[in-house]
Specification:
homodimer; 324 residues; Nucleotidyltransferase, domain 5; five-stranded mixed sheet; 11 helices; 21% strand
Chain lengths: 324, 324
């Protein structure tokens, strides 16, 4: 029986899924990424996870037709390299694809950017099923984004497509982790939301978030969204600004790429309606008439599993019997 | 002998090209768009131009396998409608495609957005030849944009893709013709450049542009670029800002779509190196490493003919003998 494996390589966890020939999930695992032990240890962790899932499912490693890996940061899909990975200190132009292939006794392996893989998973098996194009935006520490056009991952000419977090929305505005100013990320990410909130506190504003005894350093985006839901004026203001900028991000996506559906995922979507209701309102106010009427905004259906599922589909596309 | 016609329907002129089977240009024409005489007159003008070119080239109308039309404004390519056309008062959901087909005795006709058609012309026969993807930015009264991905026009789910002029680059900034604020268009278009220059004059700044006797109303972007080249401080400042915003537009395009090449066209490219040299500098300062190294910025090779050539190729793609 043919099988496929999908790996979501994160700075915190390595998630792995094993899939049947028809892409039903057989088993999955998660372990802490031992990034401090270096590149070869991380490759070993991925290989061990695949072998362990095979054993648990009674699948011979030789029956695994292919492995897909979603890796953070810019990747070189042709060469199978992770170019730079922000949460993997010192990782630069590392041959993740070929190293894993060797560690798995020559099992065919394909490498993709993690945001692209998650978008593809959602497109094939989640809320994007049945559409022709999709953009998925991950709202977390940063802003990730993957794009699927006409059923295929859109990597762009230099594997740079989908860097929504670094489109300029406010020239000369807040500093971004990328070294520039005014990118979407410092406005609409969870980290950016916390930072704007702290800046407001530092300027003398008050909020129930800290009146409840929470130290400024410990504040999370969740605390701010909760305080906003409880009527805290400052928290509401900050959340409202986050959502308005996120609407700009959706609008930029529609104005350039114009996908059928924009899917949101990442830690910040735990805010649910507090995020989605105003986002629907602000985004549709901005959209031109045709996308205003038909472009769908939705929350992920696959959640944290989108990455392993998308990576599994990438493996099937590349190495399945019907692969072109 | 099979032939194809390509039409560039503009608010000022109707340009038409007649092409041989292998897309060599046989003849071309241009006439003033009699938009004031209404929809049927404009359809008649397009049909008359095609017939006239056929006669002049000794091509029977029956040998014209297909006609492509590039139309301004949002178009519905499926239904063949011009949805709204800013320079055609009252044009709304008009069946341009089917009306022209009837006026040409049933000749197969295909409708596309004008910016998309021009981008496709440049991709097939201009500076974009040999690449897989291209974005073309038209700098004129507004900012037009067409995108080609993997060799095909990228229309998007709602025919809205490529609205680069209306991505937000400065939230809450200058008003845009679309009714919103902070779009790229009021910063980087020729009209926006003139408006920012006039605003600076109104605020008390001085410039050789008006000291030479030119009235404020008569100032064009060309005058401002020329004054900048001649060392006028205010003109230089305004031009510099235009180019910086245009660099942001290129960067947004790279960050979302990541094409092989970005081509500039439109009236403002007459400024030549005064535009391209600082644009190269500012854009590459913004780009991420891989596009910084490889994404090409270039001026159009086809100029004002990109539209008719692209429309001709659209006709060939849709109705040629080898059409899929």
């Amino acid at each position: 029986m043919a099988a496929y494996a999908g790996i979501d390589l994160g700075g915190t966890n390595i998630k792995v899924g094993l899939f049947s020939q028809d892409m039903a999930i057989l088993d999955q695992s998660s372990c802490r990424t031992e990034v401090e032990k270096g590149f070869h240890r991380v490759i070993g962790q991925m290989a061990d996870s695949v072998r362990m899932l095979c054993e648990r499912s009674g699948v011979a490693l030789g029956d695994v037709r292919g492995v897909g890996i979603g890796c953070p940061g810019p990747v070189d899909t042709q060469a199978g390299l992770v170019v730079v990975a922000p949460n993997f200190p010192g990782w630069r132009d590392l041959p993740v694809r070929d190293a894993l292939r060797r560690a798995l006794g020559g099992t065919p392996t394909v490498l993709e950017n993690d945001a692209n893989v998650a978008a593809y998973g959602e497109f094939r098996a989640g809320v994007g099923r049945g559409y022709r194009s999709l953009a998925m935006i991950t709202l977390g520490t940063g802003i990730g984004c993957g794009i699927v056009i006409d059923g295929r991952i859109h990597r762009g000419a230099t594997d740079t497509a989908g860097e929504l977090g670094h489109v300029t929305v406010h020239w000369g505005g807040r500093p971004c982790g990328c070294g520039r100013r005014g990118c979407l990320e410092p406005y609409a990410s969870a980290t950016g939301t916390v930072r704007r909130f702290r800046d407001a506190l530092a300027s003398g504003r008050s909020s129930i978030v800290t009146e409840n005894g929470l130290s400024e350093e410990a504040i999370t985006a969740k605390d701010i969204f909760e305080a906003a839901a409880n009527g805290d004026a400052l928290a509401w203001e900050i959340v409202d600004e986050t959502v308005r900028y996120l609407a700009i991000g959706c609008d930029v996506m529609v104005n350039l790429v114009d996908p059928d559906i924009i899917v949101l995922t990442g830690g910040m979507i735990a805010a649910g309606d507090l995020l989605m209701k105003p986002l629907e309102k602000y985004a549709r106010e901005m959209f031109f008439p045709r996308p205003k009427a038909s472009t769908r905004l939705a929350l992920t259906a696959l959640g944290g599993d989108a990455g392993i599922i998308g990576a599994g589909f990438c493996a099937q596309d590349s190495f399945g019997t019907s692969a072109s």
